[in-house]
Design a protein that fits this description.
CATH class of chain A: Mainly Alpha
Distance between the termini of chain B: 81 Å
Strand content of chain B: 25-35%
Largest sheet of chain A: none
Oligomer: heterodimer
Structural class of chain B: alpha/beta
Number of domains of chain A: 1
Order of helices and strands of chain A: HHHHHHHHHHHHHHH
Radius of gyration of chain B: 26 Å
Shape of chain B: globular
Order of helices and strands of chain B: HHEEEHEEHHEHHHEEEHEEEHHHE
Number of helices of chain A: 15
Helix content of chain B: 25-40%
CATH architecture of chain A: Up-down Bundle
Chain lengths: ~375, ~400
């Protein structure tokens, strides 16, 4: 099929995972997480990272003991019907996430950069750019993400460093937040924010080999988890939990808080392009994954005819909710619940099935 | 080729929908609000004064478009005072009184009157925190008297921009420690996060009569006087506005003021005094002689512990001094005398710090942020929500 080129390496895979797991730092997910983990919210990202490594090795094992990608592995291990149900779930998850992100990024553009732009035009521009890069293909998106990755990391580090005069590190104490068991539980619940770690397994046929996939997730998610954790620690040290939980765009607020002297301040306009580009790339990648699975589900020869209708439907759905507050609350709720099925239960079932099959083969 | 040309043309046409093509405002159509003053008015209303920059041409060649018409005039800013029921209403009314569109994103200082500070600044501070037109980094002051009077009398001759005046003032706060910079961000963060009490810089207008109005209590080692705004004995033609002391809050309500020396004690304990000047009584000739010194706070180390529920703090301060002048001609750099002088300075600073702590404990406030050092001692954030550590009674050793 034309959408399975098979030429992506570690760099592309790493960028795909990084972009799709890091973008949450620009949105309200993390300020909302402060209610659960308070001063230890920065640990959630690290706990997510550890769980993600577990998911990585379990799915790597699944791929090693089957042939092809996650879809093919499902067919081998749990049968065609269950595979279709799993595919429908992942299609739903990725397209839902793309839709919710589209709404939030369009809204944040209005609130922070272009208050006089009409909402429909903001959504329209995002969709236009997303469709444009979707037509170029996932390889191009992955390579563009990889080129953009060092710049994104550098900008995050610059903002974190420039905020140094504002830090009160005692705001990070008590170090274990509401108690370590509660933080671990919150970390377990919040893994759904990182659905991007499954992308290399879903697109496995587009990667060079299984080691490439493993390294992509390991480096991409490791880097993303570490930088998210660092940024969240900086965020709490700068605002304290009381004020930090009230913010809508944490990274934007961090950039707004930079004040070194009369000459080095008001830098936030320079970093708006960072989250706008990350948002566009993230939504494009998620739509691609949704369409890719749709292609696999219906055995389609190409995805291109689906790009524009899907993007338009998602744009309409993104504009459907009356206000952004309910979108943010809904997104947070599904991150911490519905998305976890795709991180824990489905990979868990596949791992157990692969393990069982391998043992049966050994005993035969 | 034709399709690419059409695509490029469509893309270019689509760009017209972007706000930059039709929604931008030229600099000659906006008015930059620089300072906002908030006073109490009758009936629970607010009297809000805005100080707006008048565009001036800075050279004969002309400045940006729209600045030429005011070139040569001496008016650097204008004031607009309005009675409003709510701060948000002020933004509406301001637009009804000016030809230009006011831009609040350049506001650098918010000034509150003492009266409104005593009523509580929480609701007003929230307005400036949540509204994205303003920045959390803007400075926050409390004035003796009304903010409106203060703003109208504050007329710095050395600065062409009132924003620059305040920014420079707070940049050099670390050179004396007798006043501290205070931002809306720090105020709000302290208000929302247990561990430290909010504070704000204290400012006022000096009557310029040359009559001293010092704070009455003085330590035995102390040679110079401590002041509050308006009390510094001075005359001259420079701006009558002055900064001295600190306004302290319990939650969002102002509960008292610290004088210039108490403020310096706060600065020392917060590690925010890289440089300062002191005059102490000559320990060997205390009748009329004195020693002038420059001091540098090398470090302050605060440790906290809980002893049966009672927080105990230990503050270790290392000060480095440089003798500027000795009126008695005694060689205090010689061994034997040096220790006497060091003890005199240590007693002087310890006395000031202890007096400040006693005062703030009486007021039930913690501007230093001792409570922050207690946070690592807690097992979880639950005790933080039950009681604010900043309001606990504590014992301190300096």
């Amino acid at each position: 099929m034309s959408f399975q080129p098979g030429r992506m390496g570690v760099a592309e895979g790493m960028a795909l995972v990084f972009v799709t797991t890091f973008t949450s730092i620009f949105l309200t997910s993390w300020p909302l997480a402060i209610d659960s983990a308070t001063t230890a919210t920065w640990m959630l990202s690290l706990i997510n990272g550890l769980i993600g490594i577990g998911v990585l090795y379990s799915q790597a094992y699944v791929l090693q003991n089957t042939s092809g990608d996650l879809y093919a592995a499902c067919q081998e291990l749990v049968g065609v019907v269950v595979t279709r149900l799993i595919a429908v779930y992942y299609i739903g998850i990725y397209l839902l996430d793309a839709c919710l992100l589209l709404r939030q990024f369009a809204e944040s553009t209005l609130l922070t950069a272009l208050p006089e732009l009409s909402f429909e035009i903001a959504v329209g521009w995002y969709v236009f750019l997303i469709v444009l890069i979707l037509f170029i293909g996932i390889e191009a998106i992955a390579r563009a993400s990889y080129l953009f990755l060092p710049m994104a990391v550098l900008i995050v580090f610059i903002v974190v460093a420039l905020l140094t005069p504002q830090y009160q590190f005692m705001y990070l104490a008590p170090w274990n937040g509401p108690g370590f068991p509660n933080v671990v539980m919150a970390g377990i619940h919040s893994v759904g924010l990182n659905m991007g770690i499954l992308i290399p397994f879903i697109l496995a046929r587009s990667f060079q080999n299984s080691r490439t996939i493993k390294n992509s997730v390991l480096y991409g998610f490791g880097l993303s988890s570490f930088i998210k954790s660092l940024t969240l620690a900086a965020y709490i040290a700068a605002f304290g939990t009381g004020a930090a939980r009230e913010k809508v765009f944490p990274f934007y607020e961090m950039a707004r808080l930079v004040y070194i002297n009369r000459y080095i301040q008001r830098i936030e306009s320079l970093i708006i392009f960072l989250w706008a580009m990350m948002g566009i790339l993230n939504v494009a990648i998620e739509i691609y994954i949704g369409l890719y699975l749709l292609g696999r589900l219906f055995n389609l020869p190409t995805l291109r005819p689906l790009i524009i209708p899907t993007a338009l439907i998602l744009a309409e759905l993104a504009m459907f909710p009356g206000e952004i507050g309910s979108v943010i609350a809904f997104h947070h709720k599904v991150h911490w619940s519905f998305y976890n099925i795709g991180i824990y239960i489905i990979p868990g079932i596949l791992f157990a099935a692969a393990l069982l099959r391998a043992r049966r083969r050994q005993s035969c | 080729m034709l399709s690419r040309f059409i695509a490029a043309a469509v893309l270019a046409a689509l760009c017209l929908s972007l706000v930059g093509c039709y929604g931008s405002k030229e600099s000659d159509s906006v008015a930059y609000v620089q300072i906002i003053g908030v006073d109490v008015a009758a009936g629970g209303k607010r009297k809000i004064t805005t100080q707006i920059a008048v565009p001036l041409s800075t050279s004969k060649g002309g400045g940006p478009p729209g600045t030429e018409e005011k070139a040569g005039t001496s008016k650097r800013w204008v004031f607009n005072t309005m009675l409003v029921s709510a701060p948000a209403e002020e933004a509406n009314l301001l637009r009804s009184t000016m030809s230009r569109s006011p831009r609040e994103s350049h506001v650098s200082v918010v000034i509150f009157s003492e009266e409104i500070a005593r009523q509580g600044l929480g609701p007003d501070a929230t307005q400036y925190i949540r509204n994205r037109d303003y920045r959390e980094t803007l400075f926050m002051l409390v004035v003796t008297g009304t903010a409106e009077d203060y703003m109208k009398h504050n007329n710095p001759a050395l600065e062409s921009s009132i924003s620059k005046y305040y920014e420079l003032f707070f940049e050099k706060a670390s050179e004396t420690g007798t006043y501290l910079p205070s931002t809306l961000h720090e105020f709000y963060t302290r208000l929302k996060t247990p561990g430290a009490s909010p504070y704000a810089a204290y400012t006022g207008i000096n009557p310029m009569t040359g009559i001293a109005n010092p704070v009455d209590h003085k330590q035995p080692e102390q040679k110079a006087d401590a002041y509050l705004p308006g009390g510094i004995p001075r005359t001259g033609t420079e701006n009558p506005a002055e900064f001295s002391g600190l306004v302290v809050f319990r939650a969002d309500k102002m509960v008292g003021v610290l004088n210039s020396y108490e403020t310096r004690a706060v600065a020392i304990l917060q590690n925010k005094l890289p440089l300062g000047y002191i005059a102490v009584v000559d320990p060997l000739k205390p009748e009329k002689d004195m020693i002038n010194l420059a001091i540098r706070c090398e470090y302050t180390k605060i440790t906290a512990d809980l002893d049966g529920g009672m927080p105990i703090f230990n503050a270790e301060v290392k000060i480095d001094g440089d003798i500027y002048g000795i009126s008695s001609d005694i060689n205090y750099e010689a061994p034997g005398n040096r220790e006497i002088l060091e003890q005199q300075i240590a007693d002087f600073l310890k006395g000031q710090i202890t007096a400040m702590l006693k005062h703030t404990q009486e007021l039930g406030t913690d501007p230093v942020g001792f409570g922050l050092y207690l946070r690592p001692k807690l097992n979880s954030t639950k005790p933080l929500t039950l009681t604010s550590t900043s309001l606990l009674k504590f014992a301190a050793q300096v």
